[in-house]
Structure formats: structure tokens, C-alpha cells
Amino acid sequence: MDYLIGVDVGTTSTKAVLYNQEAKVIASFKAGYTLYRDASGMAEQDPEAIVTAVKQVIRQASQKADLVTGKLLAVSFSSANQSLILLDKNHQPLTRSITWADTRASRVAEDLRRQLVAKTLFAHTGTPIHPMSPLVKLMWLKQTQPTLMAKARYIADIKSYLFWKLFQTFKVDISIASCTGLFNLQTSTWDEEALALAGVSEEQLPEIVKGTSQAHDLVPAAAQEMGIPANTPFVYGAFDGALSNLGVGALKPDTVAITIGTSAAVRVATTKPVIDPQERLFCYAIDEGMYVVGGPINNGGDVFQWAVEHLVDNSAVKQNGGSAYDLANEVIASAPAGAHGLVFHPFLGGERAPLWDANARGSFFGLTPLHTRADMLRAVMEGINFNIATVFAAVRDLIGEPTSVTATGGFAQSAVWKQMMSDILNVTVNIPESFESGCLGAITMAMKSLGLIDDYAIVKNFMGPVESYMPDQKAVATYQEYLPLFKQVEELLSPAYSVVAQLQAKQKS
Q1: CA dihedral of 298, 301, 305, 308, whole degrees rounded to 10
Q2: Which of 162-171, 224-233, 309-318, 486-495 is least confident?
Q3: Which one, 97, 244, 338, 356, has the greatest CB density within 10 A?
Q4: CB burial class (10 A; 0-12, 13-18, 19+) of residue 187?
Q5: How far apart, in Å, are the Cα atoms of 418 and each of 192, 252, 265, 430, 477?
Q6: How would you class 503 by CB atoms within 10 Å of its CB: exposed for 0-12, middle for 13-18, buried for 19 or more?
Q7: What would the pLDDT profile of 2-30 be if each residue is shown by its tens digit?
Q8: For residue 285, what are the β-bridge partners?
Q9: Which residues contact 115 (CB under 8 A, 6 or more apart)?
Q10: Which residues contact 58 (CB under 8 A, 6 or more apart)?
């Protein structure tokens, strides 16, 4: 038997999935690390901890494989996008990895959005002006830490840094490059205007390569640590969202992919760049000639986790005998659609699509003395889904009516959440059998790189059974009354977000 390993480098952990040559899962492994956060909006990772985690899970996967009679065909990568690491002349980190979740560049983003150049930048790069963007992060560092920027010889993301550590080559796949705000979608090169604003040169950035490109000849120590042959091909892959689309077979404009993990996203694939004239959605590359259009959402499963931690009665959990999440789902299922007139805006961590406002804050609207914890829990889950629905509507407006909607992520463990999504979107939602779509997308890209497949569409043969949820028209009717209210309150509150964010910052300082 021959093997493939898909690796997904995430915000708080790295996962590796071991597959056979027919893309059947053999085993999966996970290693966590700290996301360092503080009241300033910092969200950073230790890049060395990530390198260690990647080596660990690859070693665990290789030990599960029989590499005596079989061969490790390739290791392929999915990773979170929009990270930034400043490196010195020896490619040693001058900073930790500043992640997509870092909001310290909010003021710079606000100032840039007001400039005429903002529309040109978005049209060229497809990247919204937001503190998540490496372009905006670099502008912020240039303003706030000019001495540090002057020391930086190279500008990396976590994947290009990882490949440097493993192969001593400084390259990045086109997918990750396209998410930086520094990449021109029309020319497939670094954008001169964006580079000038960031204060960096093309020579400081990694070489852009195809997602199917391979790196060879591992650093001997790394090969030994991972327990794999040094000549094992490592395929660059793409960013996690792009590979999630690939991993569920959502490769046509009429097929929408929704993922809900800690955060969430709604995406469709296209064969050419599509720029949203209203600047609600991003456009990034999957690989050459393949693009993904959609909206990332900060507030997904993490908001539900917050609600469970603060709204579920621990004594009831003990009495019930299950987990707090099991009880929360039972309670939510017992409350009616619309949560007795309670609406929740889930913007606990600011918001990307559709608001693109790092100052956005969460709120309950419509509270009365009659509302219970059950209503509040249901309103939280509905609010997350209402927010997804606003991004879904933007994608539908730009690309057209979908013929298929596929959803994946941790939310799929909740039957009430799956049905609620179908009801709020008013579409049939297809949920593949549980698997890591990013890792499956990564090894499918590796199979294309190795010449084992000709067409990515074959991934549908690897997905396993699919469960479908159809909308309940009674619930649909209720939600079609509440969704406009959700949007109306959002618009009314938006001007106050920056004010409350400033007040909160004062109390934290």
C-alpha cells in the first residue's frame, strides 16, 4: 500500500491525515499550540511551535504507515492564510506570526478605506481592506515600528517559513500569495502599488509557485525527525478555505461551500477572478486558472462555545449526564424558531464579511422578562446562521443562484444546527460524512501534482456518504420575517461600534 499525508496548519492546532493511494482515511493526528492574545487586539503564534507541531503529526502519520512494503507518495499542505512574519537576513524570525485574527491594524485599515487608492487596490487584489490583510499589517508596522521594519530582510507567511525550515527554499503557493493584499489577480505577480504602500520590495517576498509545485530534498535533520525519506515530495497546496472547496467538490460557480469551525466562510469556485463591486466579498486563487469568491466570518463555533460556557446550567449538565453541548442542543431544539422574538448579533470578535468592521460587537435585541436561557441559546445559534445567510445572499447576488450547497465543519455534530441552516438559507444543505475537507483537498492537489489524477472533480469519489437536510417551510416563513430585522438592527448599530470599542479599550487599559 502507498500513502499520502494531508497537513492542515490551523490557528490553534495542526492536523495530519494519513490516506492510502485511493484517498481512504487511515488515521488522523493533531498537535495544538497557543494563540497569544491580549486586549490590544494582538493574535499571534510562535512559528517555531508550529514547525514542531507539523513535524510531530507527520512523524505520527508516518509511524502508522508501513513504509517498508509501501511508499509515502507525498505530503501536501493546507494552511490558514493572511499570516505575517518578519525575518532577518538569515531567515530568522524578528516577530511571531501575526495571524488573520490580529486587529491591531484597525485604525490603519479605516484610514486606508477612506483613500481613493482603496478601490484600486481591491480591484487589483480582490482582498478587502481590513486588519486581517498582510498589506494593512505591514502598513501598520511601518507606522508603529519603523526600526523593526528596517531590520526585516524578508517577509514571510507561516507556510513559506515552514518550507524554508524544511527545505531552505523561500517560496509560497499562488493561493496564499493571493490572500495578502499584495498580489495582482490580473497579472499573477506582486502588485507594485500595494508593495509601495507596504514599504516592501518584491525581493523581500517569497517566489510565487503553483499549488501543485513540489519541494524536494528535506533538510536531513527534519527528515530524521519526521521519520520519512528525505526525497519525499512536499506539495505546496493552498490556503485552507480554497482546499475546503476542493475537498467537498465545490468547483463550479453553482456549487456553494460553507464551512463552520471556530470561524466560518461561504465560498464558490470560478475559472476567472470575479471582483465584487460592493466590496463585500474576497476573490482569491485556488491555483492557476482556479479562483474562489466568498466571505470569511470571524464568528462561528467560537460564539456558540461562548454561549454554552455562559448560558448552560452546570448543575443541569451533571443531572442530565451528557455534555454541556448536548444539553444546549436539546434546549435549543425545544425553543421555537425565532426564539420568541429575540435576535442576536454574533459579532463577539469584530467581523469580516459582510461588515468588514473590526470594531463590531455582539448584542441581544428584543430581550424581555419572559425570555429564558433556552431562548438566548437558540438566538445565538440563529444569529450565527443569520450572519452566514447575509454572506450567502451576497455570493448569490454576485455569482448567481446555486444548484447545490455543501456544508462541513464541527457544527455538523448538531442536528438542530444542520436543520436550522437549511431553514434560514431556505435551501437543501448537503453534509458529507465527517472528514477533514482541507486535508482531503490537499492530498487531491498532491495526486494531481503526481499525475495520479487528471481532474479535481474526482474528489467526489473520495467524499463518502452525504446527508441532506431540506428546509421546513414553517420555519422558513418565520426566518424570512426575522432576517430583515437582523439586517435592520445591524445597520442601526453599526455607527456605534467604534464608540463602544473605544470605551471598552479605555476600561482595559
Answers
A1: 120
A2: 309-318
A3: 244
A4: exposed
A5: 45, 23, 15, 9, 17
A6: exposed
A7: 999 999 999 999 999 999 999 999 999 99
A8: 291
A9: none
A10: 5, 7, 16, 75, 226, 228
CB atoms within 10 A of CB 352: 26
Give 465: exposed, middle or buried? Use CB within 10 Å, 0-12, 13-18, 19+.
exposed
Q: Please report which helix (H) or strand (E) contains residue 270, including its range.
A: strand 264-270
Question: Which amino acid is it at 138?
Answer: L
From 36-40, 142-146, 306-310, 332-336, the region with the lowest mean pLDDT: 36-40
Residue 99 grid coordinates: 495571524
Q: Which cell goes with 11? A: 490557528
Q: Kindly report, residue by residue over 479-497, the tens digit of the pLDDT.
A: 999 999 999 999 999 999 9
215-266 pLDDT, tens per residue? 999 999 999 999 999 999 999 999 999 999 999 999 999 999 999 988 999 9
Question: Are the beta carbons of 389 and 424 closer than 8 angstroms?
Answer: yes
The amino acid at residue 328 is A
Q: How many helices (H) and strands (E) does the chain have?
A: 17, 24
Residue by residue, DSSP assigns 236-254 as EEEEHHHHHHHHTT--STT
Which is it for strands 404-409 and 429-432: parallel, antiparallel or unpaired?
parallel
Q: What phi, psi does 410 have (nearest 5°)?
A: -60, -25
> Which grid coordinates belong to 434?
465527517
Quote the Cα angle for 120-283-104, to 5°.
75
Q: Taking the CA atoms of 61, 166, 152 and 171 in sequence, report the sign of the dihedral they define.
A: negative
Q: Which of 165, 157, 139, 148 is nearest to 84 (CA)?
A: 157
Q: DSSP letter for 452, please.
A: S
Which residue type sits at 348? Answer: L
Tracing cell 491525515 back to the chain, one arrives at 17
Q: Distance (Å, rounded) from C-alpha 105 to C-alpha 102?
A: 8
- pTM comes to 0.93
CA dist., res. 268 & res. 120, Å (int):
23
**Cis ω on the peptide bond leading into residue 354 (within 30° of 0)?**
yes
Dihedral of CA atoms 348, 350, 353, 356 in degrees, nearest 10, equals 160
C-alpha cell at 432: 458529507
